[in-house]
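Margin note from the TA: students keep mixing up input and output lines. Inputs are the sequences; the output is the structure of the whole complex. Example:
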Amino acid sequence: MLHIDDLVVRYGSAVAIDGLSLHLEAGEMVALVGPNGAGKSTLINTITGLVPPASGSVRCEGRVAQVPEGRQMFADMSVEDNLLLGGWSIRNRDLTEVFDLLPDLAGLRRRKAGRLSGGQQQMVAVGRALMARPDLLAIDELSLGLAPLVVAELAEHLRVLNRERGTAVLLVEQEVGLAFDVCARACVLEAGRVVASGPSASVAESDAVRRAYFGDLAADETKAEAVR
Amino acid sequence: MTELFTYLVSGIALGSSFALIGSGFVVVHRVTRVVNFAQGSIAVVGGMLSATLLDGLLPHGLAEPLAVVICGAVGLAVGFLALGRRGTPPLISLIVTLGVSMLISAAIIWLWGQDPVSPPGLDGSTTLLGVTVERQRLLVVGATVLAFTGLALFFSRSYVGKALTASASNPFAARMVGIDVRRMGLLAFALAGMLGGLAGVLVAPTNAVSFYSDLPLALSGFAAAVFGGLVSPLRTLVGGLGLGIAGQLTAGYLNGSYQTEAALLLMLVIMIARSSTFVHEEAK
């Protein structure tokens, strides 16, 4: 359902995405991991149309919605208004579906979004994205700044969303354990390119992940051990 | 005491029009971060247009709303020019609004000449707490209350109003959910044009307007908007009323020609007093 081919994205003279290709099937959950500056957020912003590509193509069969890094609330507006505006692109003002999936939000609907805890705001961000009834949900750093219990709850909501509604998920996540646990497939990005891709269990063991999260030293040690 | 009450009432009426112009500044600035200095000129266009339309073309009740709608269209045109291409810095847009303001003044001279114009307003007067008050001034106050109530309802209850507020609150998130922030900016300019036009239509019957009324109106409106931190329509209303009353008291007890100077002085004091708030808001 998502077809990205030879994508190049630049910020001025700096290349953020360098000839990246990535394909997602409908209903698939894919983790996108990599070190800071690998181009993960740029890729999400390009998929959702916020950043224009320099070359290559991004084609999505269906609607795509984004849960952005840092949650990006309309801070002075109520939770209800935040959710309603999430449905702006399709003029969806029916909150029932979102409240069914994320029942905690119903009790928060009158509260100002800027005054909620980080976990509650992340839930609003997910709910706001769901208001667009997306076929693909692109999530940028689900766990950022959140307690493990809150993250576990949000991850469970994603699994339910995927299982019951068939919504595809592209999850950018620094917390690789969480990303590989939630998503069956994973891609590792480095310097704007996919350097490893496959089932999460095997990608988790790859040098690319070790290099991305523990530096070259860890990968060198692994190779040295293999030689020994 | 009667004299003071008379100045207060006329000050509230004049201040209401400043508040309407000021709220136009606020609406545009909230969404686009642009200070629209064409607001004063649009108010003058509103007064002039209503005079022309009332001069045998349309009756009361039709001429005024039409003038306001036309001013909305003028505001929209100003927005198109000021916002330009995506990414135009607000400072450049501000300079464009100054240029457009001069252009509108030239158009006013070309269309209506240089003499002050005062369209017919609501005839007669009424006695309020022992003081005779022109009905037109009461109309100004009533229309302002209605306009501000409508504005508050529009922003808090309507879907488009919420999208405008969202665009002001977090433009990145607004774009992310599919709101066309530039289109919202243009809508804000159109709304501001209507508010400015309404101010002109209301104030012109009691205070004749000419091409050079734009600067005093813009400055007074801007001062009111500054009182509202360029973000709050309600505080802009308070600021506008304060300026109107201060101006009328100055004219009544000191000298009429010092009215604008009094407004400018007050704006200066407010800006100095509120400078810390501006720094805080910029930081946010």
